[in-house]
Design goal:
There is one protein chain. This protein is an all-alpha fold. The protein has one domain. It is built from four helices and no strands. Helix 1 packs parallel to helix 3. The chain is elongated.
Length: 159
């Protein structure tokens, strides 16, 4: 029983760590645009300073849209790679394969979230479509009992 719980905890932890690895790796090697600072000469900014700060924030938000789109594509691509790796390892080590699968799914959710932040509905739709296709394929491949003959008992029922 203890080993089973440890496997579940390890699988979940591996999934979270993989998603963090992709997210932080992307941020490290593809940094976001610099955020404007709200530095004012006085404690109460003048109308001109407020207008300048407003323009800086609008420019920043415009620069973040393509950045979020690109991060969404990077995350979705990474998720597909992680999910593919989980399929390659499923016969060797189930715990590692499940951790990779969970990490791929978490990364895919992260990518879809960044796609929504991009403001580009086409990119978001494509990311969601790729994610849906991968999840359906993965679910079929992992849980539909590959090689099961029609009318045969499910794998769990076989002694």
């Amino acid at each position: 029983m203890e080993t089973k719980v440890l496997k579940i905890v390890y699988t979940f932890f591996l999934g979270v760590m993989l998603a963090l690895f992709v997210g932080l790796g992307t941020d490290t090697f593809y940094p976001p645009p610099a955020q404007p600072s709200n530095v004012s000469v006085s404690s109460k900014p003048t109308a001109e300073e407020e207008a300048t700060m407003q323009r800086a924030w609008e420019d920043y938000q415009k620069a973040m849209e393509p950045y979020n789109r690109n991060v969404s594509i990077i995350a979705a691509s990474s998720a597909v790679l992680l999910l593919g790796a989980s399929l390659l390892l499923e016969r060797r080590t189930n715990v590692l394969a499940n951790g990779l699968m969970l990490g791929g799914l978490f990364t895919l959710v992260y990518g879809v979230g960044r796609g929504f932040a991009s403001g580009d509905s086409r990119t978001t739709f494509i990311t969601v479509a790729v994610g849906l296709a991968v999840v359906i394929f993965l679910g079929y491949r992992r849980f539909a009992g590959r090689g099961a003959k029609p009318g045969a008992a499910p794998p769990a029922a076989v002694a």
